[in-house]
Amino acid sequence: MPRPGVIVTQSGDRGAALAAALCDRGFRAEHLPLIETVPLAEAVSQLAEVAAGDDAWVFTSAAAVRALASHAPAVARLQAAPAAFALGSATWRELRAVAPHAVHFPGVRGAQEFAERLVEVCPPSLGFIFPCGRLALEVLPEELRRAGRRVTEWTVYDTVLRTEAADRLAERSGEIVVLFSPSAVSAIAAHPSSGRMFAPGRFTWLPFGGTTARALDHLGIQHLEPPAEPSHEALIHHLETLYPLGA
C-alpha cells in the first residue's frame, strides 16, 4: 500500500526541504505554507530599549528569533543577557546564530515541560523576557508565573493566514496535515471554512510539537501524537513508523 499524502504547512525553505525529504521516502508530500510571519519592527525596537539587562530570554518560536535578528540593538541586549533558552532544536539553531550561549533541553516537549526545566535550572531571582507572536499561547508565561517567576511578554511578530493557501486546503480531504505552531491552529480556526477543515475525518492532523498539540486539544480536534522531539528528522521517523512501506 502506498504511503499517504502529507501537506507540509511550514513556510520557507525548511518547509520545502521537508516536503522533498518526505517525497524521497515514498510519501505524496506537498508544500503548502498556511501562515506567514510579519516582524513588528517598532515593537522589537521598544523591547531593545526597555528589556532588563539581568533577565534571561526565552523563545518558543524561530519566528521570534528572526524578528529580533535583524535589529542590532535587540541582538546586543540578547547577547548581553545572563542566559537565553529555546524550546526545540529548530528554534535553538536559529537562536544560536545570534546568541551562541543559548541553551535548549533535549527531549523536552511543549511549553509546560519547558517551564518546568527553566524553574529547575534558573535561580528564583532571575526574571524572563519572552518575545513571542501575537497569537502565541499563554502556557509558558502562565506556568512560570505559577512558579512565582517574573515574566515580561513582548509581541515581536504577527501571524497572518495565507488566504489562498487556506482556501486550497478547504477544498482538499484525506491527507495528513502537519501543523508547526499554535499560531497556525489559531489562524485556521479564524478562517470562514474552519468548521469544514476541522470536521472529523476530513484530515489527519499531525502537530509538530506538544504546544501545537495542546492548541488542537483546546479546540477539541483529534490528532496524531507529535513526534518524540520537534525536529524534521524525528517527524520523518514518526511518519515512517506510523505508515511503513508495504503495510
UniProtKB/TrEMBL annotation:
Tetrapyrrole biosynthesis uroporphyrinogen III synthase domain ranges (all copies): 17-236
Catalytic activity: hydroxymethylbilane = uroporphyrinogen III + H2O
Pathway listed: Porphyrin-containing compound metabolism; protoporphyrin-IX biosynthesis; coproporphyrinogen-III from 5-aminolevulinate: step 3/4
Enzyme class: lyase
Keywords: Lyase, Porphyrin biosynthesis
InterPro entries on file: 4pyrrol_syn_uPrphyn_synt_sf, 4pyrrol_synth_uPrphyn_synth, UROS/Hem4
One GO term (biological process): protoporphyrinogen IX biosynthetic process
A Pfam family annotated for this UniProt entry: HEM4
Superkingdom of origin organism: Bacteria
MF GO annotations: uroporphyrinogen-III synthase activity
Known EC number: 4.2.1.75
Family: Belongs to the uroporphyrinogen-III synthase family.
Job of this protein: Catalyzes cyclization of the linear tetrapyrrole, hydroxymethylbilane, to the macrocyclic uroporphyrinogen III.
Protein name: Uroporphyrinogen-III synthase
Organism expressing this protein natively: Alicyclobacillus acidocaldarius subsp. acidocaldarius (strain ATCC 27009 / DSM 446 / BCRC 14685 / JCM 5260 / KCTC 1825 / NBRC 15652 / NCIMB 11725 / NRRL B-14509 / 104-IA)
Lineage: Bacteria, Bacillati, Bacillota, Bacilli, Bacillales
